[in-house]
């Protein structure tokens, strides 16, 4: 928060003028938006297709730490998180709504930064921001985001359609956001011990970008390619809390088990290099890290060659019957049971 | 929070088992729910109609104070708040999503209480709970709720359709929730000064219910009656932050002014009685109070007789051109300009 910029206190504007200011120029561009900002709710004009909704919270100290998280990036990422869940249903996001809980320590310009990030992400992904609300908060900053999208009924993919013998595939590479988070946390500890210390973040811009300003372009490209090839995933989920959680989501909801081969898991090269330096197992970053915003999906065995040839897709294992459990198979040694993260490990800097 | 009940710590269950437990028996009952809980997002199968969405946050210390707000009521009310906004678009709510931010001071049973309230409201209003998420919070309890509904395209009503000379109507009676809030705040102050003091709440159960467990039945009945009579409001909004804010929402979005007659504003009788006792102007409770969950709407002048004969509807004034401003007309004396509440007054116990 730079103090050289003009700062308008929230009470100077009042809530309605603040919302007006944050909404400036937000005209609908998605053809399905029938009524956007300024009414009690927003309205969409769907075709005969499926409407898909997702919503979630970003809480200060839990999902982000403002000592290193720029507000604009926070806005950007909070929308990406929900758009990712819409894409994970094989649908196209179309509208989004944002509700903020803020205290007086934020000025209007800072909220404009935050909403600016949301707006940037919305415009990049062709989504209309149709709801915007601000209320007071006694404590931390709260960002609530809801997103809505559509797809043809026959394109809709949930977590429950995976069957024994089918293949498990992952988009992109995993672990970069987790290692970026480690870097930021390390610097935060250094800074707290010595406020004059200079951040040691050079050479790590890629990892930092993966945690601070994640993108979904890779997912979107893979989904488009699969659609073009007539390859519909049988089950799919967003990898946003580590691959282990994503695998267990699909196994549990589909009533299957899985075998995932450690040497086929696409660990991000930058992440692997830093993990080695920091003596962290790169597979831990991929399995239990989180916030990769990549997709885990299953396809029938007969699609093996086809799916393996799609750029940005790795076949990492297969599904078994439920009784066989969910295990990771290392190149040597015993299979390792895949476990869900506990309450504390769910989110970076997880709380009590 | 009774300490005689069994308390399961959140970490004993872990997040997934907690969500499972909170989701038990939540099978879809609304015919438009295509995929509910357990996927990345939820999916609806709309007809060719309009899809309507609303979402918002309830923050501890701002929207509720747990010293007097039972968790079950809080869950109930947090859903009602968003269903009200769907009804205010003249649509039928169908699905809802809840995201909680909680700290370790809550046990599993307490979250079950909270979600139990959401579930009760959902079942009473025929709504499916299709999304449920919990994350850690360092500080206060956060409840994020999104709701979705539908209506025929020609039934959709926003805030922007009101025109000069049209009539302004209000459902139900106003001010009861505000006076209930005053009672609770008074008791909280007494309790903080003397923890052995007995609450003085006898005889006020109606006012307390209006703040702690509001209903939308009155609104729903009026909307059904208007539809049956072929009377579509030209503009409509939820009265959830006082009548003054609702009036200004419609005036601003429709580009009109208004005259509202003080003696036609339906002040709740219980609220008026207590207001007199506490030396509060009953009109203040109605105009600036909030959380009434009633509807303000406009209709063409020619509908005057028809709308005035609908049970639970009061015609309170009319719309003027924008230049004439928004004013309340008292029985005697000068017109009073209707002003928006400031930042601090927006919510009960509003924060910095």
Could you give a short description of this structure?
The structure is a homodimer of 352-residue chains. In chain A, 34% of the residues lie in helices and 24% in strands.
The gross shape of chain A turns out to be globular
Number of domains of chain A: 2
User: CATH H level of the largest domain in chain A: which superfamily?
Assistant: PurM-like C-terminal domain
The oligomerization state is homodimer
Mean pLDDT reading of chain A: 85
Secondary structural class of chain A? alpha+beta
Tell me the CATH architecture of the largest domain in chain A.
Alpha-Beta Complex
Strand content of chain A: 15-25%
Radius of gyration of chain A, Cα only, in angstroms? 21 Å
Distance between the termini of chain A: 28 Å
């Amino acid at each position: 928060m730079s103090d050289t910029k003009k700062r308008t206190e929230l009470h100077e504007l009042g809530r309605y003028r603040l919302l007006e200011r944050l909404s400036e120029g937000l005209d609908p561009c998605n053809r399905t938006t029938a009524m956007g900002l300024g009414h009690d709710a927003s309205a969409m004009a769907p075709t005969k297709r499926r409407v898909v909704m997702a919503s979630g919270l970003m809480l200060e100290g839990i999902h982000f730490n403002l000592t290193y998280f720029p507000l604009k990036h926070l806005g950007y990422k909070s929308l990406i998180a929900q758009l990712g869940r819409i894409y994970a249903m094989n649908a196209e996001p179309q509208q989004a709504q944002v509700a903020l809980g803020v205290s007086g320590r934020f000025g209007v310009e800072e909220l404009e930064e935050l909403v600016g990030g949301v707006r940037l992400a919305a415009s990049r992904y062709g989504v209309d921001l149709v709801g915007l609300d601000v209320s007071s908060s006694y404590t931390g900053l709260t960002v609530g985001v809801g997103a809505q999208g559509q797809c043809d009924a026959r394109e809709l993919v949930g977590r429950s359609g995976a069957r024994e013998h089918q293949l498990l595939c992952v988009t992109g590479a995993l672990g970069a956001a987790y290692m970026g988070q480690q870097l930021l946390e390390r610097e935060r500890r250094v800074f707290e011990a010595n406020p004059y210390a200079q951040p040691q973040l050079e050479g790590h811009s890629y990892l930092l970008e993966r945690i601070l300003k994640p993108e979904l372009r890779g997912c979107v490209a893979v989904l488009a390619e699969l659609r073009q090839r007539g390859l519909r995933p049988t089950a799919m989920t967003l990898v946003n809390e580590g691959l282990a959680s994503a695998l267990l989501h699909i196994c549990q909801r589909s009533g299957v088990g899985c075998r995932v081969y450690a040497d086929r898991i696409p660990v991000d090269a930058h992440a692997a290099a830093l993990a080695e330096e920091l003596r962290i197992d790169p597979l831990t970053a991929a399995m239990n890290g989180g916030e990769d915003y990549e997709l885990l999906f299953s396809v029938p065995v007969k699609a093996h060659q086809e799916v393996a040839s799609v750029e940005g897709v790795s076949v990492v294992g297969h599904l078994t019957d439920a009784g066989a459990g969910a295990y990771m198979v290392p190149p040597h040694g015993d299979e390792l049971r895949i476990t869900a993260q506990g309450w504390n490990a769910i989110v970076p800097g997880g709380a009590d």
